[in-house]
């Protein structure tokens, strides 16, 4: 599914890979985030930290009319405050998407899939 943005000069189409790259960079730059993991973590029962080229497996983008929301799946470091990490991720993702891609997100849902011990 690609995101379409109507403009006065035409329609802009953004692929999920482009959006996931921007979102994944915003997520992994936060303190306490070990990395992004697959949204099917519990089904696969394998922790695999996603690399930059696989961020689409850890980002779910949904569009209903004019409403756009994002779900991100992360792995956090032991000893960090999860609520603060999630709030920072929400703010960073909203800011980067609005600044770099030019559209607003209504919701940024952060799913903590696990905690990694050092």
From TrEMBL:
InterPro entries: Asp23. It comes from the Bacteria. PANTHER family: ASP23_GLS24 FAMILY ENVELOPE STRESS RESPONSE PROTEIN (PTHR34297:SF2), HYPOTHETICAL CYTOSOLIC PROTEIN-RELATED (PTHR34297). Belongs to the asp23 family. This is Asp23/Gls24 family envelope stress response protein. It comes from Suicoccus acidiformans.
């Amino acid at each position: 599914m690609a995101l379409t943005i109507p403009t006065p000069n035409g329609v802009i189409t953004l692929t999920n890979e482009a959006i996931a790259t921007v979102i994944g960079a915003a997520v992994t730059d936060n303190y306490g985030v070990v990395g992004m993991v697959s949204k099917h973590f519990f089904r696969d029962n394998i922790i695999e930290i996603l690399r930059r080229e696989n961020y689409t497996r850890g980002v779910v983008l949904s569009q209903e009319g004019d409403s756009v929301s994002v779900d991100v799946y992360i792995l956090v470091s032991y000893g960090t405050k999860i609520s603060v990490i999630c709030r920072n991720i929400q703010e960073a993702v909203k800011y980067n998407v609005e600044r770099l891609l030019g559209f607003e997100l209504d919701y940024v849902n952060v799913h903590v899939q696990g905690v990694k011990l050092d």
